[in-house]
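User: I'll paste a sequence; please echo it back and then give the predicted structure.

Assistant: Echoing your sequence first, then the prediction.
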Amino acid sequence: MDLIKKTAYIALHVIELLVLGFSLIIYTSLNKQLPWYESCGTQFLAIFMLSIPSLIFIGIGFIILNKKYELKKLNIKIPFYSAIGLGLPILIDGGLSKITITIGTFLCVMSILVTIAIMLVHFGIVNLKSVNK
C-alpha cells in the first residue's frame, strides 16, 4: 500500500473517530451522572453545525481517495450513514426525549465500532476469513 494512501486513510479515519466521539459526548450530555452534563439542550446544534458537515467532508475525502486507490464501498459509505444517523433522531423528535438520546447514543457507539473494525480489517490486524472457520 502506498504511503500517501496509508497516511490519508488513517488521517480520515482518525478525524472520523474524533467527530463521532464528539457527537457521542453531545448525545450523552443530558445525562446528569456525567461530568459534561448540560441541561439546556442547545449543544445539539453542534451536531448540525460541526459533526454532520465534518462527516460529509470525510466522505468526500474517501470518494477522492477512491478515485486513485481502490477502497471498499463500506469505507466510503460509513461517513454518510453516520451523518444521517446522527441527524435523524434529532430531526424526527425535536423534544430530545430519552428515546431520542438513547437511539443517538447507540448510533454513535455503533458507528465508532464499525469504523474501528473497518480499520482493523483493512490493515490485516483482524482476518475475517479465519474468524468464520
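The radius of gyration is 16 Å. The mean pLDDT is 83.
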